Fold this sequence. Notes:
The complex is a heterodimer of chains A (70) and B (605). Chain A has helices spanning 2-22, 38-62; one strand at 63-64. Chain A has 70 residues and is an all-alpha fold. Chain A starts with a helix and ends in a 6-residue tail after the last strand. Chain B is mainly alpha-helical and 605 residues long. Chain B has 25 helices and five strands. Chain B has helices at residues 9-17, 23-43, 66-85, 92-110, 114-133, 140-169, 184-196, 205-209, 217-236, 241-259, 264-285, 288-319, 324-327, 337-340, 342-355, 362-376, 380-406, 421-439, 441-445, 459-479, 494-509, 511-536, 538-552, 559-572, 583-602, and strands spanning 47-49, 52-54, 57-59, 62-64, 489-490. In chain B, the strands form two sheets. A two-stranded antiparallel sheet of chain B has the order 1-4. Chain B has a two-stranded antiparallel sheet with strand order 2-3. Chain B is elongated and about 110 Å long. The relative contact order of chain B is 0.07. Classes of the chains: A mainly alpha (70), B mainly alpha (605). The interface between A and B is large, with 43 and 47 residues. Strand 1 (63-64) of chain A pairs antiparallel with strand 5 (489-490) of chain B, so a sheet runs across the interface.
Amino acid sequence: MRAALRLSLLFIILAEVAVVHYLHLGHPYFWFEKLPGFSSLYGLLSCVAIILFSKWLGKSFVSRPEDYYD
Amino acid sequence: MIEWLHPALLPLAAAALLPALPSGARKALTVAVPLAALALCAAGPHGTRGGFEFFGHELSPWRNDGLSALFACVFALIGSIGAVYALHEDRPAEQSAGLVYLGGALGVTLAGDLLTLFVFWELMALAAAAIVFIGGRPGSAGAGMRYLMMHLFGGVLLLSGILLRAAQTGSLAFGPMTADLGSPAAWLIMAGFLLNAAAPPLGAWLPDAYPRASVTGAILMTAYTTKSAVYALIRGFPGAEPLIWLGAVMTVYGVIYAMLENDARRLLSYHIISQVGYMVCGAGIGTQLALNGASAHAAAHILYKGLLFMAAGAVLHVTGKSRLSELSDGKGAEVPLWRKMPATAALYLAGAAAISSFPLFSGFVSKAMTVSAAGEAGAALPYLMLTLAAAGTFLSVGLKLPYNMFFRGSAAAPKAKEPPANMLAAMALAAALCLLPGLFPGVLYSVLPFPSGYQPYTAAHVVAALGTLGFTALGFAIFLPRLSPSPSLSLDTDWFYRRGADALMRFLRGTFARRAEAARRFFFGRLPAGVARAAENPRAFLGIAALGARLYFSTAAAEPGLRARLEAALKDYPGDAYSYRPVGNTAMWAILFLLGYLVLYYLPD
Lengths: 70, 605
């Protein structure tokens, strides 16, 4: 199961590199979209950034006990 | 016959009629009336009808064109789906409020002038506040009051802008106002719209109120207020640049706050703000592709967000729980909730696939149009923010929420079962409507305001979407041990008015109440008593006052004499109040007063 998931991720990023980078099927709007595997890597980056930033924000400013306003 | 029947009047009339009907008829009406309104909106010929003169202004309450018709039809559609979802309950007040809410939303989308728009705008605010108020959840009443206050404030902004604009331009017509963004009138109108679109810092009312509506009442709320505001922005401010940035910020803000949230329906509420951000951004870009994208995304969003709220509501209805920390406490893990509610879980995942823009679902087409429009406009940073928010949406709505709600096991799971059939039917209908535009984009394009030849299913686009989704899932898997939900509350801009109201009440009850009591004692106690005392003998009183003044300014030598006279006068007070002076004196004073009046009268201004 785990191996299959890893394989499919590998397949996805290879497919993206192949389609965008070698077959030139996309029509990139910006320079960064021409980087190989941009969408996949940016997705991972976004996910990690959102998790870490929201954890930090919650701990440092935002999170309060549930009965804060009561 | 239907030429003159404004679609908004139908639900409003039904809402008034409803309380007099038996339960069965009420339920039938709540389902049928939105469908009738839908037919009127869809079949009505394009153009403006029913115009009339009102205090010298031309009002046109019924303008039907591509943009209005799309929003009005989807509003009516979700109204009917929401009514099916609520068939197992009999809550007459909520049914009536829901129909008024629909009437308001239809009135706003069909209004050809700003005054009509404002009237229906306020009607929506009242109906929605009522739905929250009677939600019957912990904290419903307070949240309903806060909702009402915020929206009345937004209404004041909007009305000020409208009146200012009418005074400046002499016209109430509702059309593009982007060119007038130099004037305060346009800014006020835009601020009023943005408050309803839940744009920060004016958007904290949304996650405050929506989770406190009832399971059934929340469905309509997720559709009407924010999306009618999106409609108003598309109509009124297409191409207004600040909206690009505001929308992009909204998408990220909603995603970040959703990550901190524990309550399922509040998490989904933050994602309304995030998704509305895409639409606001599209309105700001203002190209035909962007406006089409914003409209399409609004239509798709109403259906998939309704579906997500319905599924989370079904879990709440069955288990009595909506906190993820309670739904994933790990008890009964051998029978996770999805085994007891497989249909609900599957329908939730369909909605999650649509909001996460999986290929074959509506969000894939509608979100791509907006994001591509940002790309075509060359807005690199907004483009990156929208893409980041798309990953974040999948992370919390597509992974974190269903994982904790359906797959981890909870103490509530063993007793759980599927919700009533009408709830499942409503969800299935919404799920089908999430798939339809994804499978056949042409159907969606045919109802958009501008002609569209957008091609979402290109190889590059599909692999890019799968890449983003797949690697977001990888990030989720890596951080899984650290993503357990915990009960907490997130501070938002509602802190200012919730804590502010507390501080105001403390001030009113403490310092202000003491001052007011002192003032009351003076004005109703000492002052009237003093006046009464002075009135016993005004002449002697004035004499005493004059003596007091002379004593105050006297030299040391004169002081003892004056003091003695003052004490004597006080001792003698009030003494003989009548004076025996000749009539001539009185006559002289009267003449002097009249003379003074004459002088004042002829004094130049």
